[in-house]
């Protein structure tokens, strides 16, 4: 019964269905009983002896979990999902009775009080997900008794004190997220013994001390974030030992000394320069080729740009976004180590005399960029606005897959309907009217930039070309030609790559593409397409081109 329009309180007589195995009513408008603070339906499940999975995610339950919930000790309950349910008050103290529970997910609620020591009695527990609540106090040592624990997610709470040393004994732990709390002291030495650990996030706490050489023991590590602490000493020189690492953030600490030699000799490997610094080609100790973006700290707003990129990169993962491998931050140097893109920028391909992209390649690039924007705008709880979408920020890998990079001007918004203002503007010609005039940043501004870039990709003319004076813009020029002479404005190199094909069909395809670009780049924000509507249209065009070439 997930994702319906169900409302009212969850009936107490569910407990009479003793053979029921799964209750799943996620994403409705179900509540607790009116006037009753405790969520009594949880206690009523005592007789559901066959119940294995209980899913009430994203319902406005708005109540307290009763202690009697733990009395479901005779059931076979394995999974309990109740994230985003407005659950408040302390956690039940009887959770140790839930001996068969493997997953407890109560994130994004209003749970307060301390973590109950009874959590340690949940001997089957594999995933404990409690991030984004108001939990206080210390992490209880009893939690180390959950020997099968694979995920411990306590980020964005008010937890204080130390990380218990015994956490290092949880040999099955793969995900440890303790970010955005009030944790102090040094990181326990035993933590670096967790050879199964994949992701570690201790950012936004008050950890101090130095990072030991034994951190190389985290042989499975894929992502680590230690940013916004007070960690000192040298940047670890054994980053190259993390063979699977794709995210490493140590920004905003107190590190000193040089950038590790594993970044390679950068001076002779300049790839390009931007507003706030330069990008070099480097080689890690394991032979991995990377791009290193070193910011010029003498430039105004360079530090703000670096912080913006770090804040965005720690929250996003997508195949069409350039991956950040690590970051380095010290008073003298701030750098991002990025996935190397062997085929350079889209701008290089578009305006080179040696290369020419055919129609399918150009549409494929547009699909990749649109998918990246769809993820940024709709793929997570906090949306990201890029604010500087243009061909030079679109990078192509060795298979010509496009990746969006350079988030130095990006903004994070809480809601798709939100907008914010900024005094830091993107690139002339690509910024939307409301962004240029009033500094208003929203997802619609990214869609405008995408529309302009789409048009540029087809006609091979920059929006700042000298032919576009005040009375004529790139968009106006194309719009005037769309009805009866569309091929007259198309890049001649593109038309040459399509020679020998049905030009009437090609013209129809180009017309459809340009129409999308014009709808995305409307002056009035409300008239622009949503990127989630752009993606299927471009995908349809791409599939049609692929089938015609087979």
TrEMBL record:
> According to its record, how does it sit in the membrane?
Single-pass membrane protein
Quickly give the catalysed reaction.
L-threonyl-[protein] + ATP = O-phospho-L-threonyl-[protein] + ADP + H(+); L-seryl-[protein] + ATP = O-phospho-L-seryl-[protein] + ADP + H(+)
Keyword vocabulary terms for this entry: ATP-binding, Cell membrane, Glycoprotein, Kinase, Leucine-rich repeat, Membrane, Nucleotide-binding, Phosphoprotein, Receptor, Repeat, Serine/threonine-protein kinase, Signal, Transferase, Transmembrane, Transmembrane helix
Give the main localization category: membrane
Q: Which GO terms describe its cellular component?
A: plasma membrane
Q: Which InterPro entries match?
A: Kinase-like_dom_sf, Leu-rich_rpt, Leu-rich_rpt_typical-subtyp, LRR_dom_sf, Plant_receptor-like_S/T_kinase, Prot_kinase_dom, Protein_kinase_ATP_BS, Ser/Thr_kinase_AS
Identify this protein by name: non-specific serine/threonine protein kinase
Source organism lineage?
Eukaryota, Viridiplantae, Streptophyta, Embryophyta, Tracheophyta
């Amino acid at each position: 019964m997930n994702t319906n329009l169900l409302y009212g309180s969850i009936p107490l007589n569910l407990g009479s269905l003793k053979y029921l195995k799964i209750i799943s009513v996620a994403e409705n408008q179900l509540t607790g009983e009116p006037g009753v603070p405790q969520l009594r339906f949880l206690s009523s499940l005592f007789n559901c002896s066959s119940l294995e999975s209980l899913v009430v995610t994203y319902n406005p339950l708005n109540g307290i979990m009763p202690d009697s919930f733990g009395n479901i000790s005779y059931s076979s309950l394995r999974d309990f999902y109740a994230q985003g349910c407005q659950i408040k008050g302390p956690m039940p103290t009887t959770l140790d009775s839930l001996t068969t529970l493997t997953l407890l997910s109560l994130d994004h609620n209003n749970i307060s009080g301390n973590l109950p020591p009874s959590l340690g009695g949940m001997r089957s527990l594999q995933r404990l997900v409690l991030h984004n609540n108001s939990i206080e106090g210390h992490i209880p040592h009893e939690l180390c008794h959950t020997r099968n624990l694979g995920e411990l997610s306590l980020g964005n709470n008010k937890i204080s004190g130390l990380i218990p040393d015994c956490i290092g004994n949880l040999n099955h732990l793969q995900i440890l997220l303790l970010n955005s709390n009030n944790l102090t002291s040094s990181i326990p030495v035993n933590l670096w013994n967790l050879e199964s650990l994949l992701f570690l996030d201790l950012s936004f706490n008050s950890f101090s001390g130095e990072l030991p050489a034994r951190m190389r023991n985290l042989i499975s590590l894929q992502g680590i974030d230690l940013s916004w602490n007070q960690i000192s000493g040298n940047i670890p020189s054994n980053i190259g030992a993390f063979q699977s690492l794709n995210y490493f953030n140590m920004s905003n600490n107190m590190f000193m000394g040089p950038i590790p030699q594993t970044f390679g000799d950068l001076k002779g490997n300049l790839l390009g320069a931007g507003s706030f610094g330069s990008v070099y080609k480097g080689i890690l100790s394991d032979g991995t080729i990377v791009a290193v973006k070193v910011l010029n700290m003498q430039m105004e707003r360079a530090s703000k740009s670096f912080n913006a990129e770090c804040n965005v990169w720690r929250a996003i993962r997508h195949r069409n976004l350039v991956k950040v491998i690590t970051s380095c931050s010290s008073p003298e140097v701030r750098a991002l180590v990025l996935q190397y893109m062997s085929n350079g920028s889209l701008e290089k391909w578009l305006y080179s005399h040696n290369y020419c992209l055919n129609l399918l390649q150009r549409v494929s690039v547009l699909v990749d960029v649109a998918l990246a924007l769809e993820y940024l705008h709709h793929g997570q709880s906090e949306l990201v606005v890029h604010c500087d979408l243009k061909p030079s920020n679109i990078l192509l890998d060795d298979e010509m897959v496009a990746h969006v990079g350079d988030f130095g001007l990006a903004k994070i918004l809480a809601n798709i309907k939100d907008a914010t203002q900024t005094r830091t503007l993107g690139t002339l010609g690509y910024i939307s009217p409301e962004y240029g005039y009033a500094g208003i940043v929203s997802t619609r501004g990214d869609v405008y930039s995408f529309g302009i870039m789409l048009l540029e990709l087809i006609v091979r003319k920059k929006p700042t070309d000298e032919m576009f004076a005040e009375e004529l813009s790139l968009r106006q020029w194309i719009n005037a030609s769309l009805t009866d002479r569309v091929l007259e404005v198309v890049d001649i190199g593109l038309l040459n790559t399509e020679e020998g094909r049905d030009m009437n069909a090609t013209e129809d395809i180009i017309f459809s593409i340009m129409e999308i670009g014009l709808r995305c780049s409307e002056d009035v924000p409300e008239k622009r397409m949503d990127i989630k509507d752009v993606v299927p249209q471009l995908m349809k065009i791409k599939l049609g081109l692929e089938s015609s070439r087979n």
